[in-house]
Amino acid sequence: MLTYRTAGESHGPTTLAFVEGLPAGLAIDTTFINAELARRQGGYGRGGRQRIETDVVRLLTGVRAGVTLGSPVVLEIVNKDSRLDDAVKTPPVTRPRPGHADLAGSLKWLTQDCRGTLERASARETAARVAAGALAQVFLREFGIEVFGFVSGAIDATCVVEVDAESLPELRAARDASDVYCPDSETGARIIDHIHKAKVEQDTVGGRVEVHVLGVPPGLGTCVQWNERLDSRLAAAVMGIQAFKAVEIGMGADCAWHFGSQVHDPIAYDRSLAGESHLGFTRPSNNAGGLEGGMTNGMPVVVRGTMKPIATLLRGMPSVDLATHESVQSQYERSDVSAIAAASVVMECVVAFEIAAAFLAKFGGDSMAEVRAHFDATMQLARALHPHE
Ligand code: EPS
User: Fold this and answer.
1) 356-367 burial by CB neighbour count: b if 16+ within 10 A, else e?
2) Of 16, 206, 212, 349, which has the most beta carbons under 10 Å away?
3) Is 204's C-beta closer than 6 angstroms to any atom of ligand 1?
4) Which of 10, 84, 130 maximizes ligand 1 atoms within 8 Å of its Cβ, making it the mutation to test the pocket?
5) pLDDT tens digits for 21-39?
6) Ligand 1 contacts CB of residue 271 (under 6 A)
7) How many CA atoms lie within 13 A of 14 on its CB side?
8) Which domains occur in the chain, in start order?
């Protein structure tokens, strides 16, 4: 079973991810992991912290000469802005920010200082999740599975992006050229305008992010147990990202406004497509987002997430002082005006991790050679069931 946990405080010495269940024999592409970490630090609207940090992964365990051993892999990203024990530089937070973990955490841990809560609730922790998810992407690429995350909207700017194997390289280039990681330049420019305006008005901006997974084999996940359905796992992973308030698969919430005949993707069979990498089944649409009955159906997996605006507003929000109970403006901590671009990297990585976990649940083994043998043998059986000659 592929799993991970994270540890670390935002202004503590380090950020860690503990990954367990990777097979032995996977060559780790640290350049790719570091590129994902760098993308997470970027995007228009980010705050001062990102000018201090240069996130680089260190592989502390589970690796020999750049190749996994089959033992737990601990990934570390050291915090340059480490000052947790300095009471002057990390003062108490007693005026909780609406929308942040401050108030709920202070009530949970029975304290009037929200500092202990916010240090762990902080989105700094997503550096660890990106490192773990980028490692999962390195694994998935061995089986031709590509994961592509991008920003698709904010406020009133929105775009529909058709992602397929053919358009992917161009879309990736367009996304990487965009300051808000939006492959549609017009939408990206409008999102930047909104973030700029919010900055001037000491406000913040959220947005919508999408992740498309291409090359996913059918049969990942299962319908036999609710918490092992892949859509259930994906939803949990996406909702686990700081500030995410909604997750959708495929057509998502829009299903409510359409009849069944408009929602379900017809099934067809095209013998000419059947071959080594295709079983011949085609769907003219993908409203299911590649998942039916909690299992992949061979179509791309499409997941959409909605992030609320960052809770720390420079101008503050109505709040209450936890010591005096007087009405006050919420406390300001250095923050971002928008982290929507970064969120698209985080979501890409958490989705990748769940796909890799489901892949290993089906085709798992102790070594990459064994996983590949299981995968090839299963695909051969599927092809035998639907012979193309
Ligand atoms: C972040 C690190 C944090 C914040 C932000 C994202 O660093 P600092 O608190 O030192 O400025 O910039 O976190 C939040 C928005 C939050 O609510 O905690 C990061 O590395 O992504």
Assistant:
1) bbbbbbbbbbee
2) 349
3) no
4) 10
5) 999 999 999 999 999 999 9
6) no
7) 14
8) 3-384 (3.60.150.10)
